[in-house]
Specification:
about 425 residues, alpha/beta, 8-stranded mixed sheet, two-stranded antiparallel ribbon, 13 helices, 10 strands, PGAP4, transmembrane helix, membrane, transmembrane
């Protein structure tokens, strides 16, 4: 009798092991199938890690130029209609002209392509695009804050900057060189030797000029009496959710009681630098959290499906843990393949879902400064010298580390960088790193 009972018990254990092995095999096959499908689908997802490997610079350049021309046409049509509406209203009521505004929206601009070794044969019109988008967004009647929109022209030959001159009737302009109360005085309007602007003839480098341009535009914006200054470079086009998200961040981050003061908030960071593989510690934690949570849900779903074959013998804990680990790895790989920037797009479903994290280094296309932050940043920038290796954005990051200032980044991006033609480079920007 004992031998018979032992044989039955051994047979049951053997059958249970076979069922568990079969279940693990099915789960493994499912995981492999999911990975293969993800790899194939990722080829169709813009910005995915796999697709980036096959990007062609020439094809990307043509795509950027086509998109740029399409935006120019839409922007010009909007501005034409907007100008007509201003002329028809008496008195004219331009958008973004509240005398007691909360936020000063300033577009920093200069002519593009003058330093290029080859003549630019296509239209850039970055200021036109940036300004048109901001005017469109300011037409939203659901906004709860007031705004003051202006353009800060830091071109050293403003009379030759035709695009800016054609837009002066739409919004107020600050002109650093040429009659706008520039911080370097009257002589900035004159020309030095060999036709060079005075700032160049004095031996001031382009990097120093850009720093002073930035400080000038910040100070001019704050002189309007606003609480916050949003400084936008002209080759950054705002996302349609910019103002609702900005108002949510102002309320829940900058103005929340008991929070540590914030110096500035970045509203753009290059997509290629927003991935999981980064020195930013919170992104690794984000990836692991995603793997744990989604992996657990998938493991639970698979366990429930195979429960009928194992319910007579109770749950196999080893199978559950193995499944959880396996699906967690699948989720990690899937997230890396699809790309963090694509997953961040899901947060655009609502302004409340946008993520606010400590800011990484690099880049100044769109930054929001508090009044105190602007004062401290301006003072620091004027105390240091900028160069090719230590540009304005480098000095801003240095300021953050030296002073311990709190600086944040809103994700996903609230601006798109469109600048194929730089104000600094003698060649076009690599199309693969424009945005």
């Amino acid at each position: 009798m004992v031998n018979v009972a032992g044989m039955k018990s051994s047979a049951a254990c053997s059958r249970l092991r076979r069922l568990a092995a079969s279940a693990r095999s099915v789960i493994s096959n499912r995981m492999l199938l999911v990975l293969v499908v993800l790899l194939l689908v990722s080829l169709l997802i813009p910005g995915s890690a796999i697709r980036r490997l096959f990007l062609n610079a020439d094809h990307k350049r043509q795509q950027l130029l086509a998109e740029n021309e399409e935006r120019i046409q839409r922007s010009q049509l909007f501005l034409q209609n907007y100008r007509a509406s201003l002329e028809a209203s008496s008195p004219a009521r331009p958008l973004g002209a509240d005398p007691e505004a909360d936020v000063g929206l300033t577009v920093l601009t200069m002519a593009r392509g003058r330093r290029m070794s080859r003549h630019v044969t296509y239209r850039t019109q970055y200021l036109t695009q940036s300004l048109a988008r901001l005017l469109q967004l300011l037409n939203d009647t659901s906004l709860t804050r007031s705004y003051r929109l202006s353009v800060c022209d830091v071109d050293d030959r403003p009379d030759n900057y035709t695009e800016a001159r054609n837009l002066e009737d739409l919004v107020p302009f600050f002109n650093r060189f040429g009659g706008g109360g520039g911080d370097d005085g009257k002589d900035d309007k004159q020309q030095g030797e060999a036709g060079k602007p005075v700032w160049g003839a004095r031996g001031v480098t382009i990097w120093e000029k850009l720093k002073h341009d930035y400080v000038y535009c910040l100070q001019q914006t704050m002189s309007l009496g606003v609480r916050y200054a949003l400084l936008v470079e002209d080759d950054a086009v705002a996302h349609v959710q910019l103002l609702p998200v900005l108002e949510h961040v102002l309320k829940t981050v900058l103005e929340a009681p008991g929070t540590r003061p914030v110096t500035y908030i970045k509203l753009f960071h290059p997509d290629r630098l927003l991935g999981y593989i980064s020195i930013e510690a919170e992104r690794l934690a984000e990836l692991l959290s995603l793997a744990v949570v989604v992996g657990a849900l998938l493991a639970f779903a698979c366990t429930c499906r195979s429960k009928s074959s194992l319910e007579a013998h109770g749950p196999d804990r080893a199978q559950i843990w193995t499944s959880w680990l396996g699906w967690g790895i699948v989720v990690c790989v899937a997230a890396l393949v699809v790309g963090r920037t694509n997953l961040l797009e899901l947060r655009r479903l609502s302004p409340q879902l946008y993520q606010v994290t400590p800011t990484p280094s690099c880049c100044t296309p769109a930054m929001l400064f508090t009044r105190e932050g602007q004062r401290d940043v301006s003072r620091y920038l004027l105390s240091v010298t900028c160069s090719r290796s230590k540009s304005t954005d480098f000095r801003l990051d240095e300021f953050r580390h030296v002073t311990g200032a709190r600086a944040l980044l809103v994700q996903p991006n609230l601006f798109t960088h469109i600048g194929l033609v730089s104000s600094l480079r003698s060649e076009e920007v690599n199309p693969l790193i424009v945005n």
